[in-house]
Amino acid sequence: MEHGAAPAALPYYVAFSQLLGLTVVAMTGAWLGLYRGGIAWESSLQFNVHPLCMVIGLIFLQGDALLVYRVFRKEAKRTTKILHGLLHVVAFIIALVGLVAVFDFHKKKGYADLYSLHSWCGILVFVLYFVQWLMGLSFFLFPGASFSMRSRYRPQHIFFGAAIFLLSVGTALLGLKEALLFKLGTKYSTFEPEGVLANVLGLLLVSFGVAVLYILAQADWKRPSQAEEQALSMDFKTLTEGDSPSPQ
Amino acid sequence: MEHGAAPAALPYYVAFSQLLGLTVVAMTGAWLGLYRGGIAWESSLQFNVHPLCMVIGLIFLQGDALLVYRVFRKEAKRTTKILHGLLHVVAFIIALVGLVAVFDFHKKKGYADLYSLHSWCGILVFVLYFVQWLMGLSFFLFPGASFSMRSRYRPQHIFFGAAIFLLSVGTALLGLKEALLFKLGTKYSTFEPEGVLANVLGLLLVSFGVAVLYILAQADWKRPSQAEEQALSMDFKTLTEGDSPSPQ
Q1: How far is CA B124 from the centre of its chain?
Q2: What is the DSSP letter of A233?
Q3: Any idea where the domains of chain A sit in the sequence?
Q4: Which of A11, A74, A153, B117, CA to CA, is 20 to 30 A from A202?
Q5: How confident is the model over B33-69, as pLDDT tens digits?
Q6: Which residues of B touch A115 (CB under 8 A)?
Q7: pLDDT for B247
């Protein structure tokens, strides 16, 4: 394979993942528009800001941030890193709006906060996402960390990045289920159109998660290391072979 | 590292994962015993067979089957393969009992089947698990497949094995949430003891999933290839470097 050239199948898989991701966002919008009265910051519709922001931020954009190193293969490593970090910032800000929306909605309605498994998983995702971002910034963007420190931390960053993304997908499924059961109750079992649409949305969320992970897991789709950094740092592939990295 | 010797930290991580897995099983039993009247095949208690069997089969045993190649590092590869396959058979049979229990319970009560996201994900897990097992059997245990076929299929088998396990964890969370909301309804928001216990169980399910995946993801914890098979087949490590395997 030409150094830096994308593997032949990769663009198709990436395109498919984007199609899935955009379908998930569109279907969340359709669900909220068709069955939940749409979106607004004031009134009861404020709740609906929550699922939409979470799906855009913590599902679609977080997933795409993970794919940055597979898509941008020839650009300077530093540019790709900054794009990766920025996408996560945008994802985090959108998710924060979604978080404020639901807490504000609960407050106005006098509902209790943080009692459900969905909310516990959601807060866990938020805390881990923030810590992971700070760790990534300190190790990979600030010049302070040595190359051997970066090399040792890199596999951990990748594993926990994938784990936080998957936990986000799981948390979305729990939230979707909660929203369905609170509103439909036993009508859920009569195959109400809203229930069927939401189930399909749930399966699409799972599919987006699997598609992103599949692209990340293919060893020969990893970003090739380039001359500029080969001279400076260790390649991830070398790392995963278990050799201990030596600073150069 | 001595060839075949376990990396120093691995046993502690495996022990921790087992502690988590057993706690999940015990806590599921405690939840059903304390708040759901216990377990029986006849009567309404038949439903309770479902979560217990699923947690034992599709969470604990499925997870442990994935760890077999990390735990048994010096045994013959064929023995390890057979243990891996057998653990999955036992997991599948226990899960099948859990599946029959819920369908039989629904039938006796006149409840609808397969309307919820939990049930859709559950059936998906069952079908994928069965297909994955059959594929594994055909490629790795029957002598028919060539070494190059095995080498090409191995990374796919590993990826989809991990994906099916994670989907099982996600499906369990959805089922737990469903069982809570059906019974507690709005009382869930008053921090009922059952709700809190089930939330903790949910977080422990997530932790078990993360622990198993973490052990699988460590590159230098992979089972070393042994002389017997090095002469015959390709090592996974070589594969993941993206070299095309050549039949020998």
Answers
A1: 14
A2: S
A3: 10-240
A4: A11
A5: 999 999 999 899 999 999 999 999 999 999 999 999 9
A6: 188-191, 195
A7: 39
Contacts with A198 from chain B: Cβ below 8 Å: 117
Q: What is the CATH number of domain B20-240?
A: 1.20.120.1770
More reliable by pLDDT, B229 or B16: B16
| For A243, nearest residue in chain B (alpha carbons) | B220
Contacts of B199 (CB under 8 A, 6+ apart): A116, A117, A120
Choosing among 1.20.120.1770, 3.20.20.370, 1.10.820.10, 3.40.30.10, the CATH entry for A10-240 is 1.20.120.1770
| DSSP line for A48-110 | HHHHHHHIIIIIIIHHHHHHHHHH--SS-HHHHHHHHHHHHHHHHHHHHHHHHHHHHHHHHHT
For B174, which of A174, A218, A239 is closest by C-beta distance?
Answer: A174
Q: Are residues A202 and B117, on separate chains, in Cβ contact within 8 Å? A: yes
For A109-153, what is each residue's pLDDT tens digit? 999 999 999 999 999 999 999 999 999 999 999 888 899 999 999
Task: State the CB neighbour count (10 A cutoff) for residue B59.
Answer: 25
Nearest chain B residue (CA) to A7: B242
Section B220-227 average pLDDT: 80
Token pair for B8: 């120093």
Q: Which residue of B has its CA nearest to A112?
A: B189
A155 Cβ under 8 Å from any chain B Cβ: yes
* pLDDT given for residue A247 in this prediction: 39
Across the interface, whether the CB atoms of B117 and A220 are under 8 A apart is answered: no
Q: Is the CB of B178 inside 8 Å of chain A's CB atoms? A: yes
Q: Among B102, B115, B125, B186, pick the best mutation site for testing chain A contact (most A Cβ within 10 A).
A: B115
pLDDT greater than 80 at residue B15:
yes
Cβ contact B167:B128 at 8 Å: yes
Long-range contacts of B105-109 (CB under 8 A, 24+ apart): B105/B44, B105/B46, B105/B47, B105/B50, B108/B46, B109/B44
Token pair, residue B157, equals 């088998």
| Residue-level pLDDT at B225 | 76
How much is the pLDDT for A225? 76
pLDDT in tens, A70-122: 999 989 999 999 999 999 999 999 999 999 999 999 999 999 999 999 999 99
Task: Enumerate residues 183 to 222 of chain B having a beta carbon within 8 A of any beta carbon in chain A.
Answer: 188-191, 195, 198-199, 202-203, 206, 210, 213-214, 217-220
ipTM: 0.90
- Contact across the interface for A191 and B118, Cβ inside 8 Å: no
